[in-house]
Amino acid sequence: MKSGPLDYFAREAARTARTAPWLTAVSVLTVAIALVLVGLFAMVFFNASRLIGELGQSLSVNIYIKDAASSEDVAVAEKLVRQRQGVHDVRVLTPDMDRARNKALLDPTLLEGLDEEAIPGQAVIEAELDTKLQGRADVEELVSWARTIEAVQNVDDVSFGAEKLRLLFAVVEISRTVGTVLSIALLAGALFFVFSTIRLAVYARREEIEILRIVGATDAFIRAPFYIGGAAQGLLGALLAMAFLALLHVELRGLVHEVYLLNVSWSLMPPSMILWLLLGGPILGVLGSAVSIGRYLRT
Amino acid sequence: MIQLYHVHKRYPNGVDALVDINMRIREGEFVFLTGPSGAGKTTLIKLLLVMERVTDGQILIGGRNVHVLRDGSIPFLRRNIGVVFQDFKLIRSRTVHENVAVALEILGIPRREVERRVMAILESVGLDNRASHLPSDISAGEQQRVAVARALVNEPAILIADEPTGNLDADLSVEIMGLLLEANRKGTSILLATHDRSLLDRYGLRTQTLNRGFLVEDRPRVDTGRPPTGPIPNVTGSRMSTFSSGGEP
């Protein structure tokens, strides 16, 4: 059997919604739209971060050595490379080995009559580097490490695509800032709308609240139906948002796999994001209700 | 049951609504509070319900000093006081049954028990066949009977009525008085504010008269030769339940 107060609160919450059905519907839709947009921002940000993480997980680092370098210079540079954690598959190529590799890449017809010395060849240390790039700071740390190696005598250049990584991180960070600001604005808007809806419901039932107080209802008893109403509005909005985002997710997955032929190994919408969006609706609703009824009861 | 010591109430606009009121209402007593409009009857009732705070003096209800009561404890005091108003103060969007049930629902009583007690009290006020009606669908007399039922359903120690017959004709007034006298016979202490002289004369109960904020007369109960109106003689012990400062819905 249902306990008395819970049953009462649920009935009263439903009654509050019936007091202004259109306003309640608009409030639910506002929460849904806000959460859809926040969810979209979150999806874009999550997937961009994930993509960069994947891209930066294994970097190829090339350390080019000047022709004038001695074998000691190369050894110093190689030692510095090997000292870094995550470095593996270090190979040292002499100019001849590099030239041979370049030659193998060229069409044999182009090489006919060509002096072998004309084919470029430079001593190079090649290494694979496992990283967990999570932000610009990680890229900058990598750049700083590269500069240490560049400082070794007769090291010509250290290359690992730093500029591209910097650009990618800049795009992600800007979109995260813009997305966060817009998300806060959207959530504040939705919160205000829920607050206004509940405030109107409170105003419509002010006489009733006064009577409840006279017969001995505590503030918590008066507040509870409004909290439940707000939470229900928020949850309904969150479920609508989730339904829309789920549809979008299915479409996006199709697009990524079939149209762009990308093999994305992760889910475009992680479970934690789903959970936060589902919680976000009721939290918005309860907050809006709490502010609204709290202000009324204090007067 | 109710004791007032040198109670003074001054509103923020400087008006002295009550001046040096000393009053004592014993357990099981039925007392009329009378006086012309503006005498301070409603202010006194508001002080007893802690809808207003005293400016000076002390009010004891069931031995508890309401002057020092924290806001969070006020609902628990009110649960021991049934209230009936001239304008009924029924929730218009709720049925007769729901209006009465709310006084029990705030106590967290299980639904089945609420159902049983609401139907019992509605039957006792002759409204069991109106349970599903909205207040707007029943007469003024019936609405006031609903208000009385709501005030009595949780068997309060005290019932305060502010002009409960003010909107009713003579026959309906007698009907409502009958319900209140019956509650008083069962042991509920009653303070009834009215300026209806015919009501005072008819029942001859102890009458406290206010005028311009002063208590000007305390007339004892007189025997009118009518049916007994006082408490049943063997009511012992306090019906005032202990009210705590929290922990309930």
Strand order within the widest sheet of chain A? 2-3-1-4
- Poorly predicted runs of 5 or more residues of chain A: none
Q: What form of chain B results from the Cα inertia axes?
A: globular
Question: What is the chain-wise order of helices and strands of chain A?
Answer: HHEHEHHEHEHHHH
Shape of chain A: elongated
Strand order in space, largest sheet of chain B: 6-7-8-3-9-10
Quick check: average pLDDT of chain A? 83
**Biggest sheet of chain A, open or closed, and with what strands and sense?**
4 strands, antiparallel
CATH architecture of the largest domain in chain B, please? 3-Layer(aba) Sandwich
The chain-level mean pLDDT of chain B equals 86
In short:
Chain A has 299 residues and is α+β, with helices and mostly antiparallel strands.
How do the helices and strands line up, and which of them pair or pack?
The complex is a heterodimer of chains A (299) and B (249).
Chain A: H1 4-19, H2 21-55, E1 58-65, H3 71-83, E2 87-93, H4 95-105, H5 108-111, E3 124-130, H6 136-150, E4 155-159, H7 162-204, H8 206-214, H9 219-259, H10 271-298
Antiparallel strand pairs in A: 1-3, 1-4, 2-3
Helix pairs in contact in A: 1-9, 2-7, 2-9, 2-10, 6-7, 7-10, 9-10
Chain B: E1 2-10, E2 16-25, E3 30-34, H1 41-48, E4 56-61, E5 64-65, H2 74-78, E6 81-85, H3 96-105, H4 111-124, H5 140-152, E7 158-162, H6 170-185, E8 189-193, H7 197-203, E9 206-211, E10 214-219
Parallel strand pairs in B: 3-8, 3-9, 6-7, 7-8
Antiparallel strand pairs in B: 1-2, 1-4, 4-5, 9-10
